[in-house]
Backbone:
């Protein structure tokens, strides 16, 4: 059974920091695998579709993107959860779209945020393998929202 972690709330300083990259020596380590597992369990417990390590008080560049239908996002498309280490958005589409966002660190508040419709992202797996892929629509929105967390930005700072 995975650990459910406490979630930092918007007034807390850790959410304003730029998170540190995961070092090459940390890939495939027991602590990184356990962190990802606990982040995933915490996200599911709170009906999130994504989570970033700073939200659980770890200022490291680790996010999970896991679009799926749940009480908070009933229309979300289904995808397998993806753990992204040191994610980097390489390209943003010129086409943008407005969409409703919420955040586990800003409970009971939602708003319209303009994001790129599609993005190209490069990240590492837990084992240190490099992946480059394109996301569109809602999953692209989640990646952008979670990468913002790694840079100390909350969605409320981007409200339309």
Residues:
């Amino acid at each position: 059974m995975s650990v459910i972690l406490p979630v930092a709330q918007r007034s807390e300083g850790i959410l304003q920091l730029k998170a540190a990259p995961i070092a090459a020596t940390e890939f495939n380590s027991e602590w990184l695998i356990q962190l990802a597992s606990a982040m995933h369990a915490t996200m599911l417990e709170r009906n999130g579709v994504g989570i970033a390590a700073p939200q659980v008080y770890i200022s490291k560049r680790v996010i999970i993107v896991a679009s799926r239908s749940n009480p908070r996002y009933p229309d979300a498309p289904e995808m397998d959860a993806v753990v992204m280490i040191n994610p980097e958005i390489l390209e943003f589409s010129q086409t943008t779209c407005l969409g409703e966002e919420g955040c586990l660190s800003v409970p009971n508040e939602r708003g319209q945020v303009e994001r790129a419709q599609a993005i190209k992202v490069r990240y590492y797996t837990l084992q240190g393998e490099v992946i480059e892929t394109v996301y569109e629509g809602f999953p692209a929105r989640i990646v952008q929202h979670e990468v913002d967390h790694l840079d100390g930005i909350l969605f409320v700072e981007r409200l339309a």
Q: What stands out?
A: The chain has a mean pLDDT of 96. The chain has one domain: 13-157.
